[in-house]
Design a protein that fits this description.
single chain; 213 residues; alpha/beta; Methyltransferase, Methionine Synthase (B12-binding Domains), Chain A, domain 1; Rossmann fold; 2 domains; five-stranded parallel beta sheet; globular; binds cobalamin
Length: 213
């Protein structure tokens, strides 16, 4: 059985075939899908570190993205949270200026599989688009994803626009994405933040008043 460290390291080396095989082997050996996902995410963090050190280039970031998409496709059926009734609506998107979609897609998949109705606005979503989607759908939860530092400004601008539109008291806001933490959450004025997709499901369900996770 491959160790999580082996998965992480093979991923960081961008050894596509071996990484995908190790993921399949780990699943077959009943390693929880969330742990495998976390190991791949740690591999992504190492890819990011090597990019910062200029050992890797944008083409390597792209390659890591391609491998991660395949890993997600393998893990997705195992990640689904389950549940039986639709408990509410969530508007979700990657904020203006940011086109990273891998983490967002994982979160959206898990929210949907937890029987939440998700209005997925995609990436590089302008402030106005978030506001109009919330107004039109009547959704009471907003999820924003962002991996770039500049994404924080877009998150803050969106939350300011919610206030101007008179929606801030009606809509709970969660944020996430690689660099997001409690400090970012406070700085942009979100209600809470999450480090992974399971956390996003827990927050949305708690806010929407459901007990089924
Ligand atoms: C793959 C990648 C890319 C791919 C993206 C492919 C795609 N289709 O998404 C490509 C090559 C396109 C890319 C482009 C760029 N990238 Co890039 N990229 C990455 C990399 C290596 C991995 C990101 C990723 O997919 N992680 C895996 C997913 C699963 O993790 P995640 O997104 O964090 O999501 C999880 C959680 O955070 C959480 N979550 C996510 N969203 C939400 C939302 C809520 C509400 C909640 C609760 C939870 C939650 O759940 C998810 C699942 O568990 C990161 C490094 C890193 N470690 O983050 C750099 C990184 C984000 N990129 C970076 C940079 C600089 C760029 C570019 C500017 C490079 C360039 N010079 O062009 C461009 C930016 C383009 C743009 N305008 O957005 C920097 C950002 C630095 C910064 N501080 O701003 C990073 C950190 C690399 C680095 N260390 O320098 N990138």
């Amino acid at each position: 059985m491959p160790t999580l460290d082996e998965i992480k390291n093979t991923f960081a080396e961008l050894d596509e075939d071996t990484a995908l095989q190790l993921v399949k082997d780990a699943l077959a050996a009943k390693v929880p899908a969330f742990e495998i996902l976390k190991a791949c995410q740690d591999g992504m963090t190492e890819v990011g570190r090597r990019f910062e050190c200029q050992d890797y280039f944008v083409s390597d970031l792209m390659m890591s993205g391609e491998i991660f998409k395949q890993v997600s496709a393998i893990l997705e059926p195992e990640l689904k949270a389950g549940g039986s009734k639709t408990v509410g609506k969530v508007v979700f998107g990657t904020v203006k200026g940011d086109i990273h979609n891998i983490g967002k897609d994982i979160v959206v998949t898990m929210l949907k599989s937890a029987n939440l109705e998700v209005i997925d606005l995609g990436v590089d979503v302008p402030v106005d688009r978030f506001i109009s989607a919330l107004t039109e759908s009547g959704a009471t939860v907003l999820g924003m994803s962002g991996l770039l530092t500049l994404a924080f400004d877009s998150m803050k601008a969106t939350i300011e626009a919610l206030k101007v539109a008179g929606l801030r008291d009606k809509v709970k806001v969660m944020i996430g994405g690689g660099p997001v933490d409690g400090n970012v959450c406070r700085a942009v004025g979100a209600d809470d933040w999450g480090a992974d997709a399971q956390h996003a499901v827990r927050l949305a369900k708690a806010w929407l008043g459901s007990t089924a996770v």
